Amino acid sequence: MKKGFTLIEIIIYVALLAAIVLSAVEIVLISARSVSEMRVERRIFTAGEGAMETILRDIRQSTDIALGSSTFGTNPGALALRIPQDPGSSTIITRIFSLSSERLQKNDDGASELLTPPEARITSLIFWNSATTTSSLVSVKLTIESGDQKNYKSHAFYGSAVLRAKY
């Protein structure tokens, strides 16, 4: 009786081992790709939701829209609001939302602040103004993209708010 393995048995074992290893590697690669996709989506949604929340909150707190400094219905748009400097303050400043190098910029009477990270690029920013004699509604469309050639994502955010101080 011979002890050991035949050539056929070794080939079958190697083939089974190779199939198991390849399956494990594929699972790891799919998991890594999924994690990367989730990071890109989280980056987009964090930037988009934060930007929309800031814009809509400031629209609601505004006393008026500076129509001459605003750009409606085109990309890139700009929205100039007359807003109290601080909640409850009687000092009114002009706050302008616009794009700067594919990032949302907030400008308070000359003092600029970028509101979105560089990894989340804004590809579209459009404002619309619907006004009556007693109220103004501002609608916003903001499109953000992130990622690279392998893992590119884009999402559009929409929102509207009424200037509460006007009615």
Topology:
Blueprint: H1 7-61, E1 64-65, E2 79-84, E3 92-100, E4 103-108, E5 111-114, E6 121-131, E7 136-147, E8 152-162
Antiparallel strand pairs: 1-2, 2-3, 3-4, 4-5, 6-7, 7-8
Number of helices: 1
**Share of helix, binned:** 25-40%
Strand content range: 35-45%
Largest sheet: 5 strands, antiparallel
Please give the radius of gyration in angstroms. Answer: 27 Å
Global geometry = rod-shaped
**Overall pLDDT confidence:** 90
Protein structure class: alpha+beta
Tell me the number of structural domains.
Answer: 1
Question: End-to-end span in angstroms?
Answer: 100 Å
Order of helices and strands: HEEEEEEEE
Low-confidence sequence ranges: none
Number of strands: 8
Oligomer: single chain
**Strand order in the sheet with the most strands:** 1-2-3-4-5
Keywords: Membrane, Transmembrane, Transmembrane helix
Organism: Candidatus Giovannonibacteria bacterium RIFCSPHIGHO2_12_FULL_43_15
Transmembrane segments: 6-32
Protein name: Prepilin-type N-terminal cleavage/methylation domain-containing protein
